[in-house]
Amino acid sequence: MLWAFFISNLLGTIYGYEWYWAQMVDTIANYPVWYVYFVPDSPTASLFFTLSIGFLLMNRSLDQQPSKLYRAIRGFVEAFALITSFKYGIWAVAMIWTGAWQGVPVGWDGWMLTGSHLAMAVEALLFVRWYRYRLTAIIIVAIWTFWNDFMDYEKGVFPRLPDVLVDNYLSNIEWFTVGLSMTGILIAVVCLLIRKKRST
């Protein structure tokens, strides 16, 4: 089952980067090159979720007495996977169907993206029980997440959206995105507190 999750998410990640490829190339051509790291939101979230599954697939003997560096890297990957997979899973579905409400055709790819992004959000919540991140990891990911929101909407590298949404609802979308960031971070904190309470 873990291998099925790993392979399906890896393939989805590759497809996601291919989907963003044109925007990434355009960003490199027209902005400082480091802006490109903030462009492919969903596939980066999917990449980190795939890596989190990779940790679960590693030899369990490594987890018996892991080094501090191993624990820190794993914790960061898992916190990033949880917060961003939930955030962009919900965000993409909301954008697709808000566009549909405004008359944008959904098509087969819209249905495919709806299913895959809902799966991103759900699987992150399902796997959080096996995550081992700490508060430090949440703080680092929170800084990245809010900085990513700033880059998206203040520097203009947000995922490409239908014109009707950009022209009429961009400010609403910005605040919705920030709200999802806050919600994802809150979920990570609550899950951490629950885990600590159960371990005492």
Annotation keywords:
200 residues; mainly alpha; 7 helices
Tell me about this structure.
It holds the Pfam family DUF1405. InterPro entries: DUF1405. This protein is mostly helical and 200 residues long. The protein has seven helices and no strands. The radius of gyration is 17 Å and the shape is globular. The two termini are 30 Å apart.
| CA-atom Rg in angstroms | 17 Å
Low-pLDDT regions = none
Structural class: mainly alpha
Number of E-type strands: 0
Distance between the termini: 30 Å
Mean pLDDT: 94
Question: What's the main sheet like?
Answer: none
The number of helical segments is: 7
Strand content: under 5%
Global outline? globular
User: How are helices and strands ordered from N to C?
Assistant: HHHHHHH
Helix content: over 70%
Transmembrane segments: 34-58, 79-98, 110-128, 135-153, 173-194
Keywords: Membrane, Transmembrane, Transmembrane helix
Protein name: DUF1405 domain-containing protein
Detail the topology: elements first, then pairings.
Elements: H1 2-30, H2 41-57, H3 60-64, H4 68-101, H5 107-127, H6 135-154, H7 163-199
Helix pairs in contact: 1-2, 2-4, 4-5, 4-6, 4-7, 6-7
Summarize the structure.
This protein is an all-alpha fold and 200 residues long. The chain contains seven helices and no strands. It has helices at residues 2-30, 41-57, 60-64, 68-101, 107-127, 135-154, 163-199.
